[in-house]
């Protein structure tokens, strides 16, 4: 049991039983996010989707499209359904039932840069799933320039489960449903429900 597990206030999600290997981490993270989508969900967004959406019926949103290469020579392929900046989404107010942001929030200096926009498109009763790297075990934003070196893609903010929850409490329209270590020594996740109009 880690020091962060006390904050887990939500229900237990049924995750696909996989070994925690680097190859399985994206699958585990997508399963965690998808487990929180309600049966009545009609429109779901995957913000910063890159090459793989949470589920095929999610609308993938990313500011990149196609192949791009980092300064370190790493290559990514982004295949979004909508090419857009997640700070200015091309969706009407309260038109979305579920928003997933897997490894997206750490690319901003503070959640207030994006959470108001993500809350704007989310309907009352809709859910927001956020997964970020656990700074205690992954390289920090200060190390990423050497690790990855993507153009403008470096992590700007480090998170632990506790710091993510504390930062998100700045947004009172969102109620915490779940907070947990998603992949041990890799990522942490939270799920929030929008309680009133913003």
Strand content: 25-35%
Terminal CA distance reads 37 Å
CATH superfamily label: Vaccinia Virus protein VP39
Estimated helix fraction? 10-25%
Looking at CATH, which topology would you report? Rossmann fold
Q: Major beta sheet, specifics?
A: 7 strands, mixed
For the record, the CATH class is Alpha Beta
Could you tell me the number of beta strands? 9
**Reported CATH architecture:** 3-Layer(aba) Sandwich
Domain count, please report it.
1
Number of helices: 4
Identify the overall geometry: globular
Q: Average pLDDT, to the nearest integer?
A: 80
Radius of gyration: 16 Å
Helix/strand-derived class? Answer: alpha/beta
Strand line-up across the major sheet? 5-2-1-6-7-9-8
Low-confidence stretches: 1-19
Brief sketch in words of this structure:
The chain has four helices and nine strands; from the N terminus they run αββββββαβααββ.
Based on the model shown, name its key terms.
198 residues; alpha/beta; Rossmann fold; seven-stranded mixed β-sheet; two-stranded antiparallel sheet; 4 helices
Tell me what the structure shows.
This protein has a single domain (5-194), classed as Rossmann fold (3-Layer(aba) Sandwich), CATH 3.40.50. It contains four helices and nine strands. The protein has helices at residues 25-35, 115-121, 144-147, 161-168, and strands at residues 44-47, 59-62, 66-69, 75-78, 82-83, 96-102, 122-133, 174-183, 187-194. The strands form two sheets. It has a seven-stranded mixed sheet with strand order 5-2-1-6-7-9-8, sandwiched between helices. Strands 3-4 form a two-stranded antiparallel sheet. β8 (174-183) and β9 (187-194) form a beta hairpin. The longest helix has 11 residues, at 25-35. Residues 1-19 have low confidence and may be disordered.
């Amino acid at each position: 049991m880690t020091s962060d597990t006390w904050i887990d206030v939500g229900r237990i999600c049924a995750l696909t039983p996989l070994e925690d290997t680097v190859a399985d981490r994206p699958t585990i993270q997508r399963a965690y996010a998808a487990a929180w989508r309600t049966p009545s969900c009609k429109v779901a967004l995957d913000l910063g989707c890159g090459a793989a959406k949470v589920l095929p019926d999610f609308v993938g949103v990313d500011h990149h499209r196609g192949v791009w290469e980092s300064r370190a020579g790493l290559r990514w392929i982004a295949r979004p359904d909508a090419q857009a900046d997640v700070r200015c989404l091309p969706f009407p107010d309260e038109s979305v039932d579920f928003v997933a942001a897997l490894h997206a929030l750490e690319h901003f200096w503070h959640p207030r840069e994006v959470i108001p926009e993500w809350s704007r498109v989310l309907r009352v009763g809709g859910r927001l799933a956020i997964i970020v790297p656990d700074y205690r075990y992954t390289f920090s934003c200060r190390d990423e320039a050497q690790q990855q070196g993507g153009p403008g893609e470096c992590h700007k903010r480090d998170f632990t489960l506790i710091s993510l929850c504390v930062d998100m409490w700045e947004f009172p329209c969102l109620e915490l449903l779940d907070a947990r270590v998603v992949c041990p020594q890799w990522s942490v996740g939270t799920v929030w429900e929008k309680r009133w109009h913003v």
